[in-house]
């Protein structure tokens, strides 16, 4: 993900204002590998900016996703998650606690059998591996 300063410039280049709320959200996302939900971003930002609304957080995250600055993910964890990493990659999802991690896959060009995908134009591949994270797999750890 771009730095908060780069995000500010990208917004300004699109004619959008770099409001204090947007800047706080940029800061909360920068370097955040946890794939937070909008609610988690809201919690982080509202600690420093108590007047921000959840609606504002959703709006800014939607703008970022629309402009390709973050990815909006539906990983079956009950809420959309937001990924600051926009290059092609895949995910590990813990079925117990919902933690999401990026993972590299040796075969990024996985494609369906041509008979199954007849007439379907593939534009990308996303693989989600489900299981237990180390903490959930070994609760005594």
How does this model look, in words?
- The chain is of the alpha+beta class.
- It has two domains: 4-81, Winged helix-like DNA-binding domain superfamily/Winged helix DNA-binding domain (Arc Repressor Mutant, subunit A); 88-141, Dna Ligase, domain 1.
- Helices cover 34% and strands 13% of the residues.
- The protein has five helices and five strands, in the order H-H-H-H-E-E-E-E-E-H.
- The protein has helices spanning 4-13, 20-29, 38-48, 54-66, 134-137; strands spanning 71-73, 81-83, 90-94, 100-103, 128-131.
- The strands form two sheets. It has a three-stranded mixed sheet with strand order 4-3-5, with no helix packed on it. It has a two-stranded antiparallel sheet with strand order 1-2.
- The protein is globular and about 50 Å long.
Topology, element by element:
Elements: H1 4-13, H2 20-29, H3 38-48, H4 54-66, E1 71-73, E2 81-83, E3 90-94, E4 100-103, E5 128-131, H5 134-137
Helix pairs in contact: 2-3, 3-4
Find the count of extended strands (DSSP E, 2+ residues).
5
Q: Count every helix, treating DSSP H or I runs of 4 or more residues as helices.
A: 5
CATH topology of the largest domain: Arc Repressor Mutant, subunit A
Give start-end ranges of low-pLDDT stretches.
none
Shape summary: globular
Q: Tell me, rounded to a whole number, the average pLDDT.
A: 88
